[in-house]
Design goal:
alpha+beta, elongated, four-stranded antiparallel β-sheet, structural constituent of ribosome, 12 strands, Double Stranded RNA Binding Domain, 3 helices
Length: 206
């Protein structure tokens, strides 16, 4: 563990207290030049210094369960961030949200020039076929995450399931991306990109 040994110390003050012009005192006092001189020592100086150092925060690395760590290390992508906020007193019971995209976006303002904001894509669901997703942007990361989570909760739609799998095989294409989905028996698992696996977890496909 590392400690800041300078914490609690004052410039020019130690076991022997000196007046140092230009360091802990002005160089000139009126029209006279201040001279270096020894002041009265503080007998409790060493005890106070040890007390301050002992009060330093002992930072411990928080343990995060491997299944809650996201896709890579301490990155936000792939992490569960909880259900959307309640709307008119109605809570999203059984819902949980995952972050799929967190990236910086730059645009030009006429008065400030190049400005950076954060873009967040989140998907939320109850693992029983009810799912929603949304994109939100903000200059503050936490605001963007909360807005994306809450917007996803307001845009829910139903995905028909056959127990814990899809109803039938299908193929979809968007641009150069192709998705081949095949119905599999229970216990087969998911063989897909990590982003698609996260979406399946939220929907309830296992």
């Amino acid at each position: 563990m590392f400690k800041d040994l300078n914490r609690g110390q004052i410039m020019g003050v130690g076991e022997k207290h000196f007046l140092w012009p230009g360091l802990n005192a002005p160089v000139m006092k009126g029209s006279e030049i201040v001279q270096i001189k020894e002041l009265k020592a503080d007998p409790a100086y060493k005890e106070n210094l040890i007390k301050i150092r002992d009060q330093m925060e002992k930072r411990k690395r928080a343990y995060v369960h491997p299944l809650e760590r996201g896709w890579s290390g301490t990155k936000l992508l792939g992490k569960w961030i909880g259900p959307p906020d309640p709307i008119s007193g109605e809570e999203f019971i059984g819902f949980d949200t995952k972050l799929l995209v967190v990236k910086p976006v730059f645009y030009m303002k006429p008065n400030f020039g190049r400005t950076k904001i954060i873009s967040v894509l989140a998907v939320t669901g109850n693992a029983n076929g009810l799912v929603g997703y949304a994109v939100a942007k903000s200059e503050d990361l936490r605001t963007a995450i909360n807005n994306a989570k809450n917007k996803a909760g307001q845009r829910l739609f139903r995905v028909e399931l056959d127990e814990n799998t899809i109803l039938h095989d299908f193929y979809s294409r968007f641009g150069s991306s192709k998705v081949f989905a095949k119905k599999k028996p229970s216990g087969y698992g998911l063989s897909a990109h990590r982003c698609l696996r996260s979406i399946c977890d939220v929907i309830g496909i296992k």
